[in-house]
Amino acid sequence: MNDVVAPLFSVICPTYNRSAKITETIDSVRAQTIQAWELLVLSDGSDDDTDDWVLRAAHQDPRVRLHRVERSGHPSGPRNAGLALARGEFIAYLDHDDLWRPGHLKALLGMLRAGADFAVTGCTYHDADGAEAAEFAPLSAFWHPQLQLLGPMFEPSRAAHRRGVVERVGGWRGGAGLEDWDLWLRVADAGYTFRTVVEPTAALLMDVGTRRNRMPRPHRLPLVVLDDARTAHGLLRELRSGRHDESFRAAVSADMRDWYRRMDDSGTLVRPLDWDGDLDDEIRRVVSGDVKLFEELVLVPDRGRYALARNLLCSRTEHARRAARLVPSVQPRVLRLVRDLAEDGPGGRAGGSDQAQLLRP
Prior knowledge:
By secondary structure, this protein is of the alpha/beta class. The chain has helices spanning about 20-30, 50-60, 75-85, 105-115, 145-150, 165-170, 180-190, 210-215, 230-240, 245-265, 280-285, 315-330, 330-345; strands spanning about 10-15, 35-45, 65-70, 90-95, 100, 120-125, 130-135, 160, 195-205, 220-225, 295-300, 305-310, 355-360. The protein has 13 helices and 13 strands.
């Protein structure tokens, strides 16, 4: 009888019409220092020669397996199909346009063997030509349930978890985008343990054409409601004028420091295992960056008045509601500045306290 030894890792890679480029992704798995893996390439109804390239790789290395699924146009379906086929003790994900460095699975295994249910590494971001597209900030490798609630963390190509974790929280769900954020939040809500490192073991493609950049933003967090459109447009122009950037950056920095200290004092803030920097210094570095502060603000009609609101990338209504309830306790100084500016009016002209209403949960 020929016993089949289950691999340590099942690597799930959904793909569609990637053609020969899929071999670069496959080769980055084959180059891992840990070799106890199976690679499940889920072809989402590809109608080019992608499947032929995967089969060629499978002929060279039987740990590579091609599985065709009916075209869904969304990675959640292929990922769920991969979970059903997986034999490994741990599950790792790899998007078809991302690459792993040789130590990726080793870094994940160290955290999982130490007791983590969910493990994440750092990464680099590059464009289609291979040039650096964005800097990876160590702060983005911190984890806490509140951080998970308020921001889309941990691209799939950086993550791995124990087998069965995802199925127990309902599997991958479809939607317009950010299905990873939706899933990781459910994993966090279920009480599973997260561990991270900053070490950049994955190379991720940043592309303005990705679903994340195209997805609609149906959910918004109202910051302040004003009586008329002219006043609301004036406030938005004032915020974007740059005259208040210094005050707002100081408020963001102070709010973040207080928030992170509360999470840290509670004993539930997960710091990257390989990072020993100063948290306050890292917060200052991130906040003092070149990111424009008010690009995401929009004006929304609200029962005859106008709300100045922040776009939320949440894919589900309940998630957006939870985030909206948390924000006032996380950013009190920022919201107070918005309220004060709305009440004073652009340029310091008094608008009257009855003209602007700060929304609260």
